[in-house]
Amino acid sequence: MNLYITGTPLGNLNDMTYRAVETLKSADVILCEDTRTTRKLTNHFEITTPLRAYHDFNKFETEDRIIEEMHEGKVFALVTDAGMPVVSDPGYELVRRMQKESLGFTVVPGASAFTLALVLSGISSFEFTFFGFLPKSQAKRKEKLKEIMFHSHTSVVYESPHKLKETIKQMSEVSPDREMSISRELTKKFEQNVRGRADELLNMLGDEIPLKGEFVIVIEGYQEDEIVSDIPINEHVGKFIEDGMKPKQAIKMVAEMRGLKKQEVYDAYHK
Fold first, then answer.
1. Domain check: are 147 and 179 in the same one?
2. What is the domain count for the chain?
């Protein structure tokens, strides 16, 4: 193998697996987001493997060198600051390049914050969508939040402490009664998981729920009050648009809910 995509603890170092320790010890180089963060981990487990920065700002300029060294026989381990690499973190581009060049890679499994939060939420997990971090642009962010709040399956979102209150506020404005869960500091000393209505959780932020740590929000799927099979498709799309959704999103949502192709819904709406 040329690359081991290695999961590391979210916060509690006791969650580090034996296989992960051995993998990091035996690799020639550890690729990591922040060498200072990963060095705390390697020092704790007495891992002396050299560290090399690989993150969103240098991934493309360092990729050629990494691939060249792999062809020469070097073995790399890829880690993130916490949890599973590639999930809402850089790495998939490197995997695609390796696939193209027939280089070997595998995963050394570890914790992922969104799966832990989903399990702890008490919200249905039979079907869910992981949205990761929301867009930075305010306009795109509002658009994505509306999509999430009208999504028919459970949704999972990552959020930072300084944006959490505004995010929950916008969710509450769309659907104050929607059930959701907020998790923070997963696996750490001050781990917290709170489930309730959107408006209830909004009032708890900054008090019962301190705005510290990284957050995972789990949102119950949108439940259509009416029996959709009895509503004409164009009216169904129109209802979502009245609620503030863009036509393209509304068409996609109706197609998902009715099990139809988007083109069928598009044609029905425009006719």
1. yes
2. 3
How do beta strands 76-78 and 3-6 pair? parallel
Strand arrangement of the beta sheet that strand 154-159 belongs to: 128-133, 154-159, 215-219, 179-184, 192-197
pLDDT tens digit sequence for 127-178: 999 999 999 998 899 889 988 998 889 999 999 999 999 999 999 988 899 9
Q: Which domain holds residue 50?
A: 3-111
Strands 105-108 and 179-184: unpaired
Residues 209 and 248 in one domain: no
Judgement on whether residues 47 and 101 belong to the same structural domain of the protein = yes
The answer to whether residues 1 and 75 touch, using CB atoms and an 8 Å cutoff, is: yes
Residues 106 and 7 in one domain: yes
208-214 long-range contacts (CB < 8 A, ≥24 apart) are 209/182, 209/184, 210/184, 211/161, 211/162, 211/164, 211/165, 212/161, 212/184, 212/185, 213/161, 213/184, 213/185, 213/188, 214/113, 214/158, 214/160, 214/161, 214/184, 214/185
- For the entire predicted model, the pTM comes to 0.84
